[in-house]
């Protein structure tokens, strides 16, 4: 008999996290099952049937939900990240003539990653609603020093809903007292066979016509080169392993890139098929880009407890666009103006 842990846990930031943060909310609908916890409004399990009808765990993470708090450093497995996801050069940006400095938490202070030292992934969210097939989490980001230096207060919500073979996530954020950059994402890692290599899986990003070129620390240089003629061209289906490129930071070869869509479309922006399991993922999103990560910096891919290779798929706005207004992507929201990120994961089986 396993006795559940009912004592607080100290996380990697030295904060005491109560057991309510890793309470599991288990959802189900025809052809899909998912589990979430309030710590990071986080997906911890996602199961769909394979070609034989066997339930397959396609989410990569930890079996014990308290492990997300215990880990030595943030993996961001399955979490909502913000206030600004991805990287900000030097952790600084200018807004309405004032420079803001956000806690730099990567590469020795070279940049901010995923909202700073204590981002949304490392916060316990409130549970606003829970049912058999849906759960909604809320968070009040008070801004200022306790929130890594972002300006103003922001109310944030993450709503998850299951339906026939589908998971829909809707992220919302509203500034309460002034302008601020907002860029959220869900930071899921996936393996459509549940284990083993993903390098032979077929991947297509039909409208990913450009990518963001990064420097040796993966911070944008300002260039948005075309994917055409490049290893990162997934506009036609090809094996994930054929997309390995030296655009993945100094000394690395793999994928850790922000792919920019030529247009926002209701049609799938990402199609991924595992010939091993037969499972296909079609991802639909209203965002301008998707960050994908399967980089050699962590031994070819991030590995979950099952030894599963995986691909991080993060639908979002464009990395560091707060420092590149010339690109024309919206990232600053005024008081009362709602930010929305809606993404649907559609699963089925194809031969």
UniProtKB/TrEMBL annotation:
GO BP terms, alphabetized: galactose catabolic process via UDP-galactose, Leloir pathway; glucose metabolic process
GO MF entries: aldose 1-epimerase activity; carbohydrate binding
Gene3D superfamilies referenced in this protein's UniProt entry, alphabetically: 2.70.98.10
Signal peptide: none
Name listed for the protein in its UniProt record: Aldose 1-epimerase
InterPro entries assigned: Aldose_1/G6P_1-epimerase, Gal_mutarotase_sf_dom, Galactose_mutarotase-like, GH-type_carb-bd
Record's keyword terms, sorted: Carbohydrate metabolism, Isomerase
Domain of life: Eukaryota
Family: Belongs to the aldose epimerase family.
